[in-house]
UniProtKB/TrEMBL annotation:
Gene coding for it: ftsY
Protein name: Signal recognition particle receptor FtsY
Enzyme class (EC, first level): hydrolase
Native species: Hymenobacter amundsenii
Chief location: membrane
UniProt cross-references to HAMAP family, sorted A to Z: FtsY
Origin organism lineage: Bacteria, Pseudomonadati, Bacteroidota, Cytophagia, Cytophagales
Amino acid sequence: MGLFDFFKKDKESQQQQQALDEGLQKTKTSFFDQLSKAVAGRNTVDEAVLDDLETLLVHADVGIDTTVKVIERIEKRVARDKYVSTGDLDRILREEIVALLDANSSATGSRAILDRPDSPGSPFVIMVVGVNGVGKTTTIGKLAHRFHSAGKKVVLGAADTFRAAAVDQLIIWGERVGVPVISHGMNTDPAAVAFDAVQKGVEMGADVVIIDTAGRLHNKVNLMNELSKIKRVMQKVIPDAPHEVLLVLDGSTGQNAFLQAKEFTKATEVSALAITKLDGTAKGGVVIGISDQLQVPVRYIGVGEKMTDLQLFDRTTFVNSLFKK
């Protein structure tokens, strides 16, 4: 890496950190204002402080089960260390949340595409699922931008054929990013679109093929059958496709996102998560709860509107930003 490339990468890293800090600002402000009030006038972390902390974590949409785990970890620290001041609470809370997420961290899957040699033989196929309105198609566009900017060959498949807006939106994203979009239009067979997209990816020696799918959740059986059909058809071209099933969730909906995630994991084998719209909510703690409870790695988080504001999720960076004052 040359000196220019080093400084360019460093600048990009600083810009991403700034975007992350700003994107989590509402969650930070809400949580720490309340935490400061909870520990005001108290010197040690006692049962009353832990009770207040538990309430704050639940309100930040960390989720009850995950909150209980965090509190139990802190209780063990307090019992072991005998004396823990309220001034240490931020640091201990940060350390325990990172440790909790550690077992569910992964640098494999689609995030490893950037480190793969170009054209490794066949494309890495990502099937993207999620209900309408969570930012699914926008996330696909931003993912395409990330890969394309890194010099990877990308093909998009507009297989959400039940909404004209979804097809049109993906085509617009393809034009913006500069990647081909395979589309048969609205009310066509989604599986046929996916087949053609994967076939196109193979023909052009693409590195990654990203398939959009319908976001209906009103009938789990139909959804399961549809996604299974798409998988079977893609496997006629690439036997082990899709390599990743990425579930997109709207972080601003808090625990509703968690409920959606549970439903989708029943309908199909979700292997990774992208959590969007964290910049517009005080419920950023939902990232922690969903990652812990589903035991599915969070690959990406959305912290803004710009194409570069879909970031790789790093548990330590995320938690440190969340606790940065």
